[in-house]
């Protein structure tokens, strides 16, 4: 049973009990999607600060029980995240709401928030990286429900919070040290670089890629160096992960 005080605050946004009943329709779709990926999928209620729905494997790969994360907004974060990390998380979610609210209807649904929690833990334990995007909006324009996944994709050490606007091709990242958000353009690859990265992602060595594309090995190696530089990657696996993240391939 939801706390009456919290429910009254939610109602101010225009969300009603009928909206919660209507949102049940998403659950079957989420469970079906779960058959197609090893990533955990969830729906997060930004007003209750709780999960609306979790698939069975959401955090299981990391050894956490469902009871550990049923209230990630309070229990999970309080148990594992540093005080500085908790402040940063709430700031990130508040900025996410403000950022989404400030954009038009078409762009709102192309915005992705990512949080890399494992850089914020008290004891260096492995926590999931979470990516979410708006699923349902309240009448006042704020994000009510977010659709999210848990992932173990690689990321930079200081790459803790970010908001990606896919439509505009830009990303806003948060620096905990300076308490500032910085906007930058999402890295892009040339058509030739995309082909080379995809071939390397299939396990082909520089020599094999050069033979396939009828190029010199030096040319392929130069392209690979430029790909790594653009994406901030050190390995092919990282380059593939970052390229997918930035929609560069």
What features would you describe in this structure?
By secondary structure, the chain is an alpha+beta fold. It has 11 helices and 8 strands. Strands 2-1-5-4-3-6-7-8 form an 8-stranded antiparallel beta sheet, sandwiched between helices. The longest helix is centred in the middle third of the chain and has 19 residues, at 83-101. It has helices at 4-12, 17-23, 25-33, 66-69, 72-80, 83-101, 105-108, 191-201, 206-213, 217-231, 236-245, and strands at 40-45, 50-54, 111-116, 129-137, 143-151, 161-165, 170-175, 180-185. β1 (40-45) and β2 form a beta hairpin. α8 packs across α11.
Name a few traits of the molecule:
single chain, 249 residues, alpha+beta, eight-stranded antiparallel sheet, 11 helices, 8 strands, 42% helix, 21% strand, elongated
Give a short synopsis of this structure.
The protein has 249 residues and is an alpha+beta fold. It is built from eleven helices and eight strands. Helix 8 packs across helix 10, helix 8 packs across helix 11 (236-245) and helix 9 (206-213) crosses helix 10 (217-231).
């Amino acid at each position: 049973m939801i706390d009456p005080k919290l429910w009254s605050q939610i109602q101010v946004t225009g969300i009603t009990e009928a909206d919660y009943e209507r949102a049940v329709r998403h659950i079957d779709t989420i469970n079906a999607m779960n058959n197609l990926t090893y990533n955990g999928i969830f729906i997060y209620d930004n007003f209750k600060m709780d999960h609306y729905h979790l698939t069975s494997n959401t955090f299981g790969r990391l050894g956490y029980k469902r009871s550990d994360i049923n209230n990630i907004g309070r229990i999970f974060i309080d148990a594992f995240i540093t005080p500085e990390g908790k402040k940063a998380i709430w700031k990130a979610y508040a900025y996410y709401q403000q950022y989404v609210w400030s954009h038009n209807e078409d762009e709102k649904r192309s915005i992705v928030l990512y949080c890399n929690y494992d850089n914020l833990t008290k004891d260096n334990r492995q926590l999931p990286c979470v990516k979410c995007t708006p699923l349902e909006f309240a009448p006042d324009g704020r994000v009510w429900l977010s659709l999210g996944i848990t992932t173990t994709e690689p990321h930079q050490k200081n790459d803790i919070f970010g908001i990606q606007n896919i439509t505009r091709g830009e990303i806003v990242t948060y620096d905990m040290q300076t308490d500032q958000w910085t906007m930058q353009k999402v890295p892009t690859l040339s058509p030739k670089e995309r082909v080379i990265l995809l071939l390397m992602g299939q396990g082909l060595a520089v020599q094999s890629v050069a033979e396939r594309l009828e190029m010199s090995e030096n040319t392929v190696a130069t392209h690979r160096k430029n790909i790594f530089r653009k994406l901030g990657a050190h390995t092919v696996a990282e380059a593939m992960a970052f390229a997918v993240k930035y929609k560069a391939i």
